[in-house]
Amino acid sequence: MRAESIVVWKRDLMASTPQAVQSRRATAIGVAAILLWSGIVGLIRVTTQHFGATLGPSLIYTLAAALLWLTRRPKSLRGFSARYLLLGVGMFVIYEVALAMAVGLSDDAHQTIEVSIVNYLWPTLTVALAAVVNRRSGVRASSSSLECCWRRSGWWARSAVRPA
Hints:
This is EamA domain-containing protein. By secondary structure, this protein is an all-alpha fold. It has six helices and no strands. The chain is globular, with a radius of gyration of 22 Å.
């Protein structure tokens, strides 16, 4: 029975149906997005060391915009509302400029790592803040589980370091 389930699993894994191909493509794109996002702080740090805190990120985003324009050819923006475009683009630009300036103006690698940690934690902190602000029953349960995990991780950290 076990050998049969392994054969079925391998057959399903090797299937080349359009849905399987699409699923693998989406997974590859997701992994690439994570890798690119995790490398942005290092890329900004290297370019700001060579070109300065403002020119380095400008070069990165200009090159990225040119490559995007060449490969994807954006659709017409007329389908979006002006308010959506102004708010969305404005918030994105403010975030990227703040990140680039924080990394570019950091004094050493230690400060760059601190900026990187804040950059990686802000989505989690946004969800946690939404849980605290909304005060809904389902959200309250998730915030209490987040608090439980936080306290447990502190307990494990304290128990791992024992005075000699």
